[in-house]
Write a structure and sequence with these properties.
By secondary structure, the chain is mainly α. It has helices at about 5-15, 30-45, 50-60, 75-90, 95-105, 115-125, 135-145, 155-165, 175-195. Helix 3 crosses helix 6 (about 115-125) and helix 8 packs antiparallel against helix 9 (about 175-195). InterPro entries: HD/PDEase_dom, HD_domain, HD_phosphohydro.
Amino acid sequence: MNALLERTKNHCQQLLAESRCNELAFHNSQHTKEVFNSAKRIGAHENLSEDDLEIVLLAALFHDTGNMDCFKGHEDVSAKKASEYLNNINFDSAKIEKVVKCILATRMPQSPTNLLEEILCDADLAHLGKENFISKNRLLRKEWSEHLKMCFSNKEWVKLNIDFLEYHNYFTAYGKKVLQPQKEINLKILKQQFSEIY
């Protein structure tokens, strides 16, 4: 990892650790680490240049820092934090704009307009196509319940997730080839759970 990424990683981890993100069950530094690693993996698979990969990885590090301040619209806050930090260290302004656009593309519904944005979007929701999806999903439910006071019955929660997985699409070749098959298995598990809840 280059020096800029190393420094930025430490900066973002500190931001998350010293804020309410430290108490969040899902959107915490562990999630950021996982998104960073997924972005690296997908970026390599998509043969990104070193410069482009750096942009995606910087965006991955900052993409959820806005959760320190708010849930709703946190992507705008995250983008602002990234922009301020990178401006302060005199990072190239055209590259800063790309970092910002990557972060903003992760807003729901995701709206990437190029490969870099697609990679971050797929990395952010890579857990949908992982074997630990059900346990990750439990953490998200806990976070929503504790911090957003959004409580669901088991049936409502499973239905919400079935709808989300059916609606969601991966954008990158990696997402379609590697993550999608497991996502389909996870969707089957959810449907099975739904049929078992009375």
